[in-house]
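Tip: read the tokens left to right.
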């Protein structure tokens, strides 16, 4: 026999004959609650439940566990903004929706990191050409005199 006790935050499923209680989260209900009443305890509950899953997704996409923490912070902000667009449905669909937002934020972070590294490599390749602060060392004194004379 299966007994389901539902709360807006979670559904507890108890199977008779077993001593263990299995907790199944009603993500759809939790997201609906957050959408209508943005209370901090529900946010903490959601993040505590989903953090391991979100961290795994972020670390997988970025390839860097330290970057995954940054991604999770950005993803939480994005989730708060995106909650107004949440359509509802079932907990499975809610899980997919949450995971997609985290994955999108992680991809955006990975692209930005790649862009930044490309710019840094480009700047490092150009830097030796202009690294000397002494113009005479770069051009030679005769070249500088000639260029100053041309500019005048």
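Filled-in amino acids:
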């Amino acid at each position: 026999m299966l007994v389901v006790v539902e709360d807006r935050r979670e559904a507890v499923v108890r199977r008779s004959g077993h001593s263990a209680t299995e907790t199944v989260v009603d993500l759809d209900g939790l997201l609906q609650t957050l959408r209508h009443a943005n209370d901090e305890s529900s946010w903490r509950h959601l993040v505590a439940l989903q953090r391991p899953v979100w961290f795994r997704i972020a670390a997988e996409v970025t390839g860097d566990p330290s970057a995954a923490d940054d991604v999770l912070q950005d993803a939480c902000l994005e989730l708060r903004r995106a909650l107004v667009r949440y359509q509802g449905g079932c907990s499975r669909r809610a899980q997919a929706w949450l995971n997609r937002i985290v994955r999108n934020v992680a991809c955006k972070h990975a692209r930005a990191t790649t862009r930044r590294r490309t710019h840094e490599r480009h700047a490092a390749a150009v830097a030796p050409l202009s690294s000397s602060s002494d113009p005479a060392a770069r051009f030679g004194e005769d070249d500088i005199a000639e260029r100053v004379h041309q500019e005048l």
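Helices lie at 27-36, 40-62, 65-82, 91-130, 135-139, 141-151. The two ends are 96 Å apart (CA to CA).
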